Amino acid sequence: MEPIRYVDALNNKYGSMGFPPYQWSENDTAPWTPLAKPLADCTVALLVSGGISHCNAPPFDPDARNDHRVDAVDPGTPMDQYQIHDSYYDHGDADRDLNCLFPVDRLAELAAAGEIGAVADRHWSGFMGRTYNRSKVIGESAPAFVEDLQADGVDLLVAIPA
Amino acid sequence: MGLVARVVEQSCIPTVTVSTGRDITALVRPPRSLFVNFPMGNTFGRAGDSATQTKILRAALDFATTATEPGVLFDWPEPWDGPFEYFAGETSPEAIARQKKK
Description:
- The complex is a heterodimer of chains A (162) and B (102).
- Chain A is built from four helices and seven strands.
- Chain A is of the alpha/beta class and 162 residues long.
- Chain A has one domain.
- Chain B is of the alpha/beta class.
- Chain B has one domain.
- Helices cover 40% and strands 13% of the residues of chain B.
- Chain B is built from four helices and three strands, in the order H-E-H-E-H-E-H.
- At the A-B interface, helix 1, helix 2, helix 3, helix 4 and strand 7 of A face helix 1, strand 1, helix 2, helix 3 and helix 4 of B.
- Strand 7 (156-160) of chain A pairs parallel with strand 1 (15-19) of chain B.
């Protein structure tokens, strides 16, 4: 099956809602930092953007635009204590088993098996899409997030857009 | 999300992005991307299918060790087990009005 053309689909959706045309980021090059250690020595964190929040925290706005919120996720908290609020994808499966989008338990198993060094002290949920003010992401919210990763000694981040 | 991965990578922490939106990822060009042609929301497979979840997560982690070229996008070879479509969702007029203020 050909991949879904999300750019076209979302342009149509935004247009039908009366939003201004979305200026998609387009880059010809990418930054690069080689992985400095074997995986078995790496501390790994997950970041997901699918509107996942702890049940004791306010839910994400399922229709959010320009939402720079990012929540820490305790890897030790059972995943059934999390909720999903996001209107832009079908999270029926993820509601039943968060690991099909945010594989916290699977990563813990790989750590227990010695395939990675450790699970980071915190995973992360946020940076929901539809961000029109991207300079704020690049200049403020992402650098602040980097400080959290550095504080946790993260060697590798797995980023999961949804 | 790809933008965040780029900033993290620039800050000397390697990243691997696991995406279900191939065209968006190709535009934004995170440092390393694994594209999985599954429905958005099922990046690592179906609920309860821990074997597939582990397989794709392991592939993403391994890709972080084997990728050698900035901006590389690798296509996960296994297909979803049926057709699927873009999820249009529903946004209420009230929600649209609220978002227009942001």
